[in-house]
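Attaching the record inline, Q. Sequence:
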Amino acid sequence: MKLLLIEDDPAIVSFLTRGLTEEGHTVESSTSGDEGLYRAQMYRYDVILLDWMLPEMSGTAILDTLRREGNTTPVLMLTARGTLANKVEGFQTGADDYLTKPFAFEELLVRIEALHRRTLSQGVPAIHFGDITLDLERKQVTREGKPLKLTRKEYELLLFLYRHINTPVSATMIEEQLWGDEALRESNVIAVTMYHLRQKIGKDRIRNERGIGYTLEA
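Structure, as predicted:
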């Protein structure tokens, strides 16, 4: 998943970025409200982790702005404010979940996964195109009814391509959405992941147009 962390405490940013990255997620962070809002408006994320108290702009103000603009990205509020009134305010503003500091990292992971799964599976427990089926609840892929062993990144790549089905997706778009580490971008990890994915679901299913990008065909 691609996550946006809006948090002004450097220690928390460092801890969460390291832990979430080790779990295979791409994490971008902002330490001020204004910058966080800008990133949330300009780029697509799977889940936003949003601190309540921020310099320049509060977390609730950011959330209110995003919801008024029609941004439906799942938002998990992170805050030391744990009273019922605070939680009600957060949910009324548009938060999808609420986690009070201090919290266990394992609980944070569970909450993030639940939000992402809920978003993907809203009314669409499975996606079918051709002989390929994506089970969004279980994160499993089958071809002609037979399970495919995809890595996490291969699965995320396939889902990303599906969201743009029959439309070319450039390597730059893939890099920005699925790989946030500059070192990885400069390596051939994306090309290798795409190669293995094409081998598993069928080379003819993903068309590679030089200078244009990759197209998942229905």
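DSSP finds nine helices and eleven strands in the chain. Residues 2-120 form a domain with the Rossmann fold fold (CATH 3.40.50.2300).

More tomorrow.
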